[in-house]
Structure prediction request, 95 residues.
Amino acid sequence: MPIKPENRARYPKDWPAISRRVREEAGNRCEGSPAYPDCRAENHQPHPATGSKVILTVAHLDHQPENCARENLRAWCQRCHNTYDAPMRARGRVT
Prediction:
């Protein structure tokens, strides 16, 4: 997910390296989310369920960009990331 300009300062300066490491550790595939635990969509390939090009993202499970502990981060496809974030967005909280 793109980082909103107003939230950029909340991310550590080495976020690009952290994000890359998480995606590499996941084999450049989605790690699967609670909604889609078996998802293994491959980065830059058509998504097996949606057909759209996968852009692998890194999600913060607690929605706190400052918390970059590996256990708080997941490499997710857009479908998994957006589905996970949907309840937060519905409540009007967008990070």
